[in-house]
């Protein structure tokens, strides 16, 4: 049996991501850019606390896995700038999350570094819903990525597709979102600004295409750039977690994109170990070229 998200789950993901995004814009105004550490911590913790409270109210009984709700984080950091000297709300305990039917996987602030840099627009809020789909696994069924500084939210919808919400001109306007195909002979590949994997440079040299590497912060902003046609692919390896990709992958798949590990295997979520260190997102017509190129680079290095 395949379990779908109900219509409301898509709306909840989009509303919560957009609202956390508005809150983060206010945090930037309130804290300013002079102390980057204070701005990052305040943003991380305020967005996390908002999402935990909103999910508890809107979806009581659902489990939550948030970047900021890990015990290592929740145990050590007081609520930055909020006046309350207490640790952030913790995630659902692993034993409960791993047997739950519904798990929200959220990154309250993806691209924390870029959030703390004045003028940068490449940071995001991620809200995804994973649902159990049989006894031994499940899948992402809804997701939203807010790009608050760009006035955009990319989200799944109840038809099984994706849409783009523009909130910059009064009432939000929605349009269908489909991943565009790349121009013939060219490929723009988004990479991390601060941790671009070395093998992507080798991949660029090896492909028989005019390749441009485009540094962008935040996994959500990079995958959104693929869906918006600003780049053609996102390739990453060397480390990442489920919350960094769950919501953008939910939207990307609904928008017709290819999303997998760099060896072509499936991206699986709600695992005991939330590490999900590598990812490829692109138009389906580029997938085999990129997967073959990545394999060749890997073989040449080993
Ligand atoms: N090697 C690595 N190990 C762990 N996390 C990584 C990583 N490279 C990127 N990430 C995470 O992936 C997100 C996007 O990174 P980047 O902008 O460099 O592409 C960031 O999330 P956060 O900003 O939520 O911490 C970052 O922490
Ligand atoms: Mg992240």
Strand/helix succession: HHEHHEHEEEEEEHEHEHEEH
Strand order of the largest sheet: 1-2-3-4-5-6-7
| CATH-defined topology of the largest domain | Fructose-1,6-Bisphosphatase, Chain A, domain 1
* Mean pLDDT, all residues: 93
Low-pLDDT parts are none
Distance between the termini: 42 Å
Task: Please sum up the structure shown.
This protein has 302 residues and is α+β, with helices and mostly antiparallel strands. The protein has helices at residues 7-31, 36-58, 71-74, 94-97, 112-115, 198-206, 219-227, 242-254, 284-301, and strands spanning 63-66, 102-110, 124-132, 138-147, 152-156, 162-166, 173-177, 186-192, 210-216, 233-236, 258-260, 279-282.
